[in-house]
Recover the amino acids of this structure.
């Protein structure tokens, strides 16, 4: 039984996606299953992080519950204890983020190939991606883990701080959100696309961020908020469920991010330094050639 | 060198009680690099011959040698044989690239080589690079056949078995593919066995022509003897043979696949209906408590044996009504009783549990339970299941607080002490007041219950 009737006429180049938006729809339609499997693989790499998150959640909810029930004078002591215990989890989380980043390095190649409309063999491309990108991604995982550790530590401090110290304690979180995260977001793409040293890719990402600060920030914060949505829920099972859903959604979000970043790279960097990458994946009108 | 040798070779298909002789004692030799076109009427055994070479027919007799050796194990792998059929047999879940790369992946070729070979052969077979990422379902029949050809060619097979691969294509496309396969033959000197029922195609492809009758070789002919216009001579006898077969009633009836498979479909539909009805039944399942059942708890409840706990002189009751009861008491620093909390898990078909609090609680009589209003439940116990839903009762009795706000004391006392039971909360109304020990702080009682509720979730 054939589920899809065979088309009567030949597939033509003109029927292929011509814009990155069309590529996104095309890949989601054709390779949704592959992206879902990529999410499954990412989930395996995220297990240590999820486990730590589970423990940290229990710790957080228990202490916050203590704090709610405690008399006013006792709250500060409870928050201080919470800050200490939470920092243990978030410090261990650095390793968790690095493990997840290792998986992400493989997934990044899969996503890159999809965004270029190149054929993907999940197993081969994933392993190849890990071989190619793992160092830079581990570094990014380490940086992210450190930032989250610092942010959580200071954020917990803000719970019992007084006056202007509250703002000071929020600085690492806000600073990372505004500067570090968008740059690392671009680095996800530049490190998967270019074989430059990490520092050079980071500079390129910073340049890209400076060229498009508002939209980068907007998209970056939107994605982070989506990921942090889980932390706003007071129920641990729902938090875990949301996190797992986020991991499954990550390949789709990453694809969208890759495609948007590719358009920015085509605008600011590729024409001068990497002309062969301009419009890669897009069908070019005149040459009848896909982005090979 | 002879690459395919068949000596006194027969092949059979098992019918119900008989055996159909598909190939009847045939012998043939095919040299390396030869292009052999096989023609004959439908059902004469052309495809069976190819399947025998592939090792796909189980019932055979005689000798078959590939490259001078008896094929053992995976015959295709050993002899490097590729097979192309009319039905392209592309993998629908793989894209074009992976379909072409499949034989190389199976052979565990170096991925770098795979990429180069796949792209080169795809180009050779007229496939756009942009199509490599497409699914086969997006391609037309002609394009799918290109993919099938590319997949056959990619491993540079030494033998290609083609079973009427182009018969469903239109003439221009067929001519293009014939040229493609001919060129491939010339370039690689691969041995090709090409089955067709089309005279023109047989003549166009050239080489040796094997004319088959029903299960037998009728003749070997050299195609070069005929000009293209004389093509009819090659198969002019076929309709006659076919006619004779039909006259003898030997033509097998074609079964309608749908009719043939009706038991399977029927079974599938039945299973589906069964599954839906099961699901529907589960969804609309009425409460098992259609008949009201009352469990009475009281009368020396805490002091008698388990069998007697749930009985009283007003009737016969079973001990199936509740699973357990926990009473937690809270005292202040002076040893005065502040509060007692009780948890009961209701099991079985019990609809109501009547609590005789005089006996349940430690010597304090006169208090009574009443369900708290819905709005209070929603406020203090968001998401709480009702007693009917959870089958668990939770009760709190509060005595006059001695030290103002007791929430913290309660929290510390109950933290980590409770089983994870869902509960319905019943709060005493003015319990302590009835005992002349001062007024009851109902808000504090609710706070305690709400705290326990949160903890036990």
């Amino acid at each position: 039984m054939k589920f899809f009737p065979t088309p009567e006429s030949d597939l033509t180049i003109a029927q292929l996606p011509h814009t990155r938006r069309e590529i996104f729809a095309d890949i989601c339609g054709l390779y949704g299953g592959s992206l879902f499997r990529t999410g499954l693989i990412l989930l395996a790499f995220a297990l240590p992080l999820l486990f730590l998150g589970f423990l940290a959640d229990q710790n957080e909810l228990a202490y916050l519950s203590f704090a709610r029930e405690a008399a006013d004078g006792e709250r500060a002591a409870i928050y201080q204890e919470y800050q200490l215990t939470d920092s243990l989890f978030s410090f261990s989380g650095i390793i968790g983020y690095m493990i997840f980043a290792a998986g992400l390095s493989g997934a990044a190649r899969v996503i890159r190939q999809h965004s270029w409309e190149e054929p993907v063999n999940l197993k081969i491309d994933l392993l190849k991606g890990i071989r190619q990108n793992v160092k830079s991604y581990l570094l990014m995982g380490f940086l992210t883990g450190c930032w989250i550790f610092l942010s959580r530590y200071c954020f917990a401090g803000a719970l019992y701080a007084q006056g202007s110290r509250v703002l000071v304690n929020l600085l690492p979180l806000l600073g990372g959100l505004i500067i570090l995260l968008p740059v690392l977001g671009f680095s996800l793409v530049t490190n998967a696309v270019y074989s430059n040293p990490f520092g050079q890719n980071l500079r390129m990402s910073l340049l890209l961020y400076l060229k498009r600060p508002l939209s980068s920030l907007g998209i970056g914060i939107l994605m982070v908020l989506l990921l942090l949505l889980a932390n706003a829920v007071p129920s641990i099972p729902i938090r875990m469920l949301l996190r797992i859903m986020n991991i499954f959604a990550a390949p789709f979000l990453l694809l969208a991010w890759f495609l948007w970043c590719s358009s920015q790279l085509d605008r600011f960097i590729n024409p001068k330094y990497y002309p062969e990458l301009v419009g890669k994946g897009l069908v070019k009108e005149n040459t009848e050639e896909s982005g090979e | 060198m002879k690459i395919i040798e068949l000596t006194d070779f027969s092949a059979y298909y098992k019918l119900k009680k008989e055996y159909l002789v598909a190939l009847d004692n045939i012998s043939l030799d095919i040299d390396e690099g030869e292009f052999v076109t096989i023609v004959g009427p439908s059902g004469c055994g052309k495809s069976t011959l190819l399947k025998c070479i592939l090792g796909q027919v189980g019932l055979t007799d005689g000798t078959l040698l590939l490259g001078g050796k008896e094929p053992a194990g995976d015959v295709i792998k050993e002899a490097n044989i590729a097979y192309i059929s009319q039905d392209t047999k592309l993998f629908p879940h793989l894209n074009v690239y992976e379909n072409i790369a499949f034989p190389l992946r199976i052979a565990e070729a170096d991925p770098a080589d795979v990429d180069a070979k796949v792209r080169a052969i795809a180009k050779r077979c007229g496939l756009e690079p942009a199509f490599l990422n497409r699914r086969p379902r997006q391609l037309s029949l002609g394009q799918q056949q290109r993919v099938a050809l590319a997949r056959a060619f990619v491993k540079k097979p030494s033998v290609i078995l083609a079973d009427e691969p182009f018969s469903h294509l239109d003439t221009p496309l067929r001519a293009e593919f014939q040229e493609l396969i001919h060129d491939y033959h010339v370039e690689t000197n691969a041995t090709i066995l090409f089955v067709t029922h089309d005279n023109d195609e047989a003549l166009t492809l050239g080489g040796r022509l094997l004319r088959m009758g029903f299960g037998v070789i009728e003749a070997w002919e050299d195609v070069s003897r005929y000009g293209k216009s004389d093509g009819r001579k090659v198969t002019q006898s076929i309709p006659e043979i076919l006619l004779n077969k039909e006259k003898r009633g030997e033509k097998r009836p074609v079964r309608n696949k749908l009719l043939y498979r009706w038991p399977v479909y029927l079974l599938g539909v039945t299973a589906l209906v069964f599954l839906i009805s099961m699901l529907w039944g589960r969804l609309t399942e009425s409460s098992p408590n259609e008949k009201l059942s009352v469990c009475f708890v009281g009368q020396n409840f805490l002091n008698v044996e388990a069998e007697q706990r749930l009985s009283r002189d007003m009737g016969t009751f079973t001990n199936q009504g509740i699973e357990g009861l926990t009473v937690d008491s809270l005292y202040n620093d002076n040893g005065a009783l502040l509060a007692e909390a009780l948890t009961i898990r209701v099991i079985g078909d019990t609809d109501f549990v009547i609590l005789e609090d005089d006996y349940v609680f430690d010597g304090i009589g006169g208090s009574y339970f009443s369900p708290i209003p819905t709005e209070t439940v929603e406020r203090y116990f968001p998401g709480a299941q009702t007693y009917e839903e959870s089958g668990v009762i939770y009760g709190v009795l509060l005595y006059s607080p001695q030290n103002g706000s007791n929430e913290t004391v309660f929290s510390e006392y109950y933290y980590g002490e409770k089983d994870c039971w869902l509960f319905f909360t019943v709060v005493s109304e003015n319990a302590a007041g009835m005992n002349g020990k001062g007024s009851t702080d109902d808000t504090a009682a609710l706070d305690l219950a709400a705290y326990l509720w949160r903890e036990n979730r």
Summary: The CA atoms of residues 64 and 80 of chain A lie 11 Å apart. The two ends of chain A are 35 Å apart (CA to CA). Chain A has eight helices and no strands. Chain A touches chain B through 28 residues (CB under 8 Å).
